[in-house]
Structures are given as C-alpha cells and as structure tokens.
C-alpha cells in the first residue's frame, strides 16, 4: 500500500501552520475565484523571472569556465610600434572577410595620412625653404628645370612663367594646396568623433575600437570588438551618415584635383633636400602614401589590404578582437587585446594583466633616431627597453608566455641605406658597423639582457625579427607564435 500526499502547492496550508511567513503568504480565506486567478498569474510570472535569472547565472558560470580556457593575448609596446598592424595581420589570417568588408572605411584614415604630411611639408618649407634654396645655386637651376617640365601638365596651377624661380613655384604650389588645411581638422574630427584626447602628445588622431561602426553606422564582419574606454555605443541617424560620407567624397575630389601638385611637391628638389638633411622628417606611412599618391587619389579608389596595413591611426584604450583559432580539430577562442601605446594610455593595460595567457611585445628597432612625442627627451628605443623591463618584471604577468618582436626591420634598413648613423643617437653603439644585422644584433642583446635580469620564473623569451606590414612573412611568423603559445597552453592544461 502506498501513501500519497496532496500535490504541493506554493501556499501549502497543511505543513506550515507554525511558519509565520507562510501564514502571511497564505491566501485569505475570502479569496474570490478572480483573485485566485490573478494570484496564480502573478506567481507564474515570478517563477518565470526566477527561472530566467537561474538560467542566466548558469550560462554566466559556463561562459566564465569556458573563457578560462580561452587564450588571452596582449599586444604591448610603445606608440607606433606596430600593435594594431599586427592585429590586422591576425585578422587577415583568422577572419579575412571582416578586413575585406572594412576596406572602404579606411579611406578616411588614408586621406588623413596624406593631408597631414602635405601640410607638414608646407610648414617645413615656410621655416627652412629659404635656407635650403640658398644652399646651392646650381641646384636652383636644376629644380627650376624640373618644375618647368612638371608644370606643363598642370591644369590647376597658374600658367608658368617661362622660367619661374623656385620660390615662385613653391608659392604657387602652396596656394594650390591651401584648401587641404581646412579639411585636416574635419577629417580629424570625423575620426575621433569630436573627442579631444590627452596623452598622445602628438596632436594626431586617436580612435577607440569600433571607430568604423561609430563613424559610419556600419558593423563589420564577425570580429567582436569591445573597448575598455568607450563610454557607450554611438548611434548615428541616417542624415548624419550621409553628411559624413559627403565629407569623404569631398576630400576624395579635392585630393584628385590636387594630386599633380602633391606629386610635384613630394618630388621637389627642395623637399628632397629638407628630408636629406633631416630638417623634415616624415613617418613611414606618410612616405608610403605619398609615393602612391596617383593611385590613392584617383576616382573610385578602394584601399587595398596593403594600404590598410600601412594606414596609421592611434589606438585609444584597449580594443578586444576575438578569433577562433583551430587546434587539433577544435577551435580555441583567442582574445587579442590591442592597446594604445602612448604614455598617457598605458594605465589602461593593467586590468588585462592578471589572466593573460601570452604577450607579444613589439619594439620598433628603426626608432633609434626618434624621441617620444609625449616626452621629447626620451629616445624611443630607450623607452622600449624601459617598458620591456616593466613588463618582464610585472608580477601579474609572470606566468604569461613571452614573445618579443623586434619590428620595423624594413624601415631600419631604409634608414641605414640613407646613411643615418646609429652611433649619433645611441652613443654606446660606438664604432660597430652601421648595418642591419649588426644594429639588430645590438638591440637584441639589450632586450635579451633586460629579460635575463628580470626573469624570476625562468621563462623562455621567443624573439622574432619582423616587418609586420609584410603579409607573406607574417603568415609564417604568426603560425610559429601560435604554435608556441599552444604548446605552453596545452602544457598548463595538462597540469590542471
Ligand atoms: N614599414 C613598416 N611600417 C610599419 C611596421 N609596423 C608598423 N608600421 C606602420 O607604423 C604605423 C604605426 O603602426 P600601428 O600598428 O598603428 O602602431 P601601434 O603600436 O598600434 O600604435 P598605438 O596605437 O599608438 O599604440 C602604421 O602606419 C604602420 O603601418 C613595419 O614593420 N614596417
Ligand atoms: Mg594601435
């Protein structure tokens, strides 16, 4: 024989006679049918909410457990060291369609990367132009000839006098290119979404992760992005989108109209002289886009992947990019954290340290003749070494797999070929040969020494010589880095 109990009820009256809470919750004896129905509906709704909270907690727990299995890779290094460019190379390998989809949106950055150096060249001419012109009279004649020849195809310039002086010609170019100064601020404003940022020290534009989406109201590919510093998502009305596109189209038309003048200015003997005697210094991306001015400013221009890799925009805060990386037939989720490297941005890195699986530290070896724009007394290689020391000795990072990229080897080679002397900037370099292998070897020894002296955990340092804009070479370097990170990852997983 079995004994059965009554079906349980939320407000059981049989078992809770002594329980004051149950007594309060018990329906009043005068409850009507309608009241009862309403009460049951309320209870059902409360249960639904409670169940959904339980489910959320369960999913959160699962997500947390799973995210502990994810690889978290930090890209660290000073500003302009190549972190965002390396991130694009990862994107190209593990989520190529997203970079394809972004191509058009990079026009605004590339146009900014052209307008800004052109204006800097004009400023340098204002300051040093006369000096350079009077340096060498014979060259004056040579420059004038170049100009007469080049100006024959110029519709936008005033008709050349039979033999215009260098000065007259440069004045004419200045006049023709003056409309660019008004678009510089508009492009900067568009990119930074009107946010003025301190800490870059360079007066150039900084953007947060997801800038394309904010600037154009578009979303790109599958790559999920989060940012530590965005206060919230921006949403744009269709009207604003149209106005913004109009700006890019206007700049495209302007550049197309000015491209012969820009090309002439860039190839001008006086400008070349200013660059040779280093009174005018332009960054590598400026040179790249000015060398490609014809293509980049032609109508209907769509940036190539190579253009995107050379485009320069400073990162603000920390941008998270998520990729699925295959490992033995299953996918492991990789979180790539691309940080802003300027001094004013470095405090944003710390919250990402304690669960980092691996670090790639980028040190641009070409920067031996440059000083921090945030602190013009500090040599950039010296800053890299100091920063690397802090990373190596940081207790929160002591278990992270450590990779060092001695980057911008191609830029170093170009600089040395131009005759720039390392010992002039790094006095300790002494009389060692002014050649790529020797210079890279010298810097490598210094970084290795910093690592050795700050290596409590006896961890291995994996060093690569890189030019992160070189897609072909990066494919094999990234797969090499991936394998070494996975080896450590599997070893640690086996110990858990
Ligand atoms: N030629 C050449 N250019 C490079 C190399 N690495 C980076 N660049 C260029 O240098 C510029 C700066 O690179 P980014 O990747 O933006 O530098 P970053 O480290 O992200 O800088 P922040 O965001 O300010 O911290 C870009 O225009 C890149 O195309 C390289 O190895 N060779
Ligand atoms: Mg960056």
TrEMBL record:
Amino-acid positions noted as binding GTP in the UniProt annotation, renumbered to this chain: 309-315, 407-410
GO molecular function: G protein-coupled receptor binding; G-protein beta/gamma-subunit complex binding; GTP binding; GTPase activity; metal ion binding
Pfam families assigned: G-alpha (PF00503)
A GO biological process held by the record: adenylate cyclase-modulating G protein-coupled receptor signaling pathway
One GO cellular component term: heterotrimeric G-protein complex
Compositionally biased spans, kind Polar residues: 1-15
InterPro entries: Gprotein_alpha_su (IPR001019), GproteinA_insert (IPR011025), P-loop_NTPase (IPR027417)
Keywords, alphabetical: GTP-binding, Magnesium, Metal-binding, Nucleotide-binding, Transducer
Coiled coil as UniProt keyword: no
Binding site for Mg(2+): 315
Region (Disordered) residue spans: 1-37
Protein name per its UniProtKB record: G-protein alpha subunit
Source organism: Laetiporus sulphureus 93-53
